[in-house]
Amino acid sequence: MDFLSDVIYLDNNATTKIAPEVVEAMLPAFGPQYGNASSMHTFGGQMARCLDHGREQAAAFINADPDEIIFTSCATEADNAAWYSATETQPDKRHVITTKVEHSANLAYGHYLEDKGYEVTWLGVDSDGQLDLDELDRSIRPDTALVSIMFANNETGTVFPIEKIAQIVKSHGVQLHVDAVQAAGKEVIDLKKLPVDYLAVAGHKIHAPKGIGMLYLRRGTRFRPFIKGGHQERGRRAGTENVPYIIGFGKACELAATSQAQEVKRLAAMRDRLQQGLLAAIPDCKINGDQKHRLPNTLNISFEAVEGEALLLQLDQYGICASSGSACTSGSLEPSHVLRAMGVPFTFAHGSVRFSLSRYNTQAEIDRVIEVMPGIVSNLRAISPFARMK
Ligand code: PLP
Q1: How far does the centroid of ligand 1 lie from the alpha carbon of residue 74, in Å?
Q2: Last residue of a domain, one of 255, 279, 311
Q3: In Å, how far from its chain's centre is CA 329?
Q4: DSSP string over 278-301
């Protein structure tokens, strides 16, 4: 097998292929255009203009203003910077609210704050992975510094009702951070309408390279920089700007914005075809996540009495890349924290696979997965210790 050309890549919630247009846009900045955007000379000024253009493209993508965009090294940094700023600027407030199903970029900051003596409310989810909004409302207190809630879940694709969440949080006058890493490019993000204070996006989930992200910071929100040093990013994120990647990120935002409306429909049709094909051919499986409010590209499916990791290895033999749980928890034998929070039974949670599609997938690839999966599942069930436990 020619691995690079034959691979069927269905792990786009972990990372995406860099769009060829993005590579092309970045290339001059790896060659002749190597100036420092902060330099006074014309050569540096060219880079400053590229930086401005990238910021305009990024802002347009989420309907924000360019001065509300802070470029970061990744979404983890953007998430951490939001938590840091919200707590540092409101030292008297020692309570934070988040959910049990966040990405570790936020979960870990919550645990860090608990170690520092903060009280953290961890909101649970129902069997569809949805929050109880009354519980959110009741949990907000006068000493709540921040509510941090993801837009869409990376493992199941469940989309939270972020407008309603924002209304509730803002009715209490509390700051809201939204991790929009998986929603970007798949859900409409309009920050002129959505009253959030902070919002994080990762480049590598929208066909830009790894190592670039952005934090949206609403104008007027008090901010304390997480990374301290020089005056870059208006003193809000020190360090020489990664202009090549910012150019790529801007281009990726532009491409996503132009194709989103059409692409979302195409992705949902392919994902639904995959879901129906697998459900029809394989007994004892279960879809994880809210099927009415789900990212169009994501299918998280559990096969009872199958070991998920073994399933992934078998798929890998066919050149099919998928994932069990989030990329970071893959390789661990613990069922995912998201599926556990949803109460997915143990013998199903263990056999969960996430297929996540992108604009580069084709129907032929989906049909190939539908063709090979039944055999893989029945072979694994024949040797599964879970089958004997039933
Ligand atoms: N938040 C969510 C929901 C994610 O899915 C991820 C990456 O998987 C991150 C945050 C972290 O993004 P990055 O890899 O850019 O730090």
Answers
A1: 8
A2: 255
A3: 14
A4: HHHHSSSEEEES-SSSB-TTEEEE
Q: Does 3 map to a domain? A: no
For ligand 1, whether the C-beta of 181 sits within 6 Å is: yes
User: pLDDT per residue over 94-108, tens digit each?
Assistant: 999 999 999 999 999
Distance from residue 103's CA to the centre of ligand 1 (Å):
7
What token pair was written down for 20?
Answer: 């060829």
Range of the domain at 157: 20-255
pLDDT for residue 327: 42
The mean pLDDT of the chain is: 95
125 neighbors 337 (Cβ within 8 angstroms): no
Give the model confidence (pLDDT) of 54-88 as tens digits. Answer: 999 999 999 999 999 999 999 999 999 999 999 99
Strand order in the sheet with 119-123: 69-72, 213-217, 198-202, 175-179, 144-150, 95-99, 119-123
Cβ-contact 50, 63 below 8 angstroms:
no
Same domain, 170 and 219: yes
Position 2 in a domain: no
Q: What positions carry a catalytic annotation?
A: 328
Residue that is last in its domain, among 225, 255, 285: 255
- Rounded to an integer, the average pLDDT of 112-133 is 98
